[in-house]
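If your schedule permits, I should be very grateful for your opinion on a structural question. I have a record of one protein: its chain in single-letter code and its fold written as discrete structure tokens. Kindly check, if you would, that the fold set down in the tokens agrees with what the sequence suggests. I remain grateful for any guidance, and I place the record below:

***
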Amino acid sequence: MRAVLLSTGTELLLGDVREAHLSFIAREILPLGLRIEEQRVVPDGAQIRDALEQLFVRSDILFVTGGLGPTSDDLTCELVAQSLGLKVERNAQLLANLQRRFKERGIKWTERVAKQADVPSGGQILANENGSAPGFYLKANINSQIPSPHIFVLPGPPRELQPMFRESAMSILRGIVRTSAMERRLYKIACVGESTIEEAVGDKVLAVPDVELGYCARPGEVDVRIIGKPDAVARADEIIRRELGSWIFSTTDETLEQVLVKLLAQRKQTLAIAESCTGGLLANRITNVPGSSEVFLAGHVCYANDAKIDILAIDPKLIEKHGAVSDPVARAMAEGAHTRARSTYALATTGIAGPGGGSEKKAAGTVYIALASPAETLVKKYFFPSERETFKELTAQAAFELLRRKLL
């Protein structure tokens, strides 16, 4: 069955708000054997009606998001009804619920709010426990004079749409979907090139019938994705795990830092960080993980040489002799953070983010990463010639992967 998503809202096309529904809905419906085959984004207004009429013949299931609020630019309900030749009816129970909700919250009632109780005739109400605007479902060919798909009209805010979709829309979808079940598996890999991964698994996985293989690359990370019928996916899974092995850091949506916090917590071990070129990015990512306080002891951003000397007790002669971006200084930074925090491990970064600041011997993009532990200190040199933000992301990924490998 062909599933299509129509996202409405001028703010999406102006870039004021990021469209957040495609990834959520696509993941929710995949186990039913459904895929989003097309997404259309349109502004508020008559373009919604034009898009609806075009998509009626292109879809079996149509998800429409946004435009269900009380303001003058919220026109989705009316335009859906017009496109289907249906009347809009004010639902007495919805109206009573709205009035009670506003009274309980002490919010002033206006007549425009009442339009959120409007539903196209024949529509099935999808309750909204997290907002004031309900959604609704219209069965296929609800008006026998106008061919139309199954239509789910959903509110724009993700905190309202997502529970509504899981609790109401999915139960309806299970009753109407006529496709066989599909399975999706994900394998996340850090600091290995996309082409290297493709060489390791590509031909082998594609030799399995009825499996779709895909990749998604971002700085310092590649996602490998397989989709297909459960038995075929199981065969492809064996190949990927055999060929990629310890390169895989997660088979869920976990980030590399989430994996690290979990591994450290399981071992009751701790971490400290000393950063120069990454400017606190490593500490920021670690502390974004719930539960990181169990394992993260301290983070030092020692950008200037004097800060390295004062905070981490780096010998000034070491910096003078080798330069701040060097193996000995990275080693001393990690060991200084390790000693000060009395942590199990300590990571340190020092490099040249660019675009300036490099030399013939040390070009912009050069970085040293050190990992101190009770037994030894490891130092690795990397070269990430890129703009500053990407350089920092690549350095953070490399540092975290170095620690993950040590923990394994």
Remarks:
- The first strand starts at residue 3 and ends at 8.
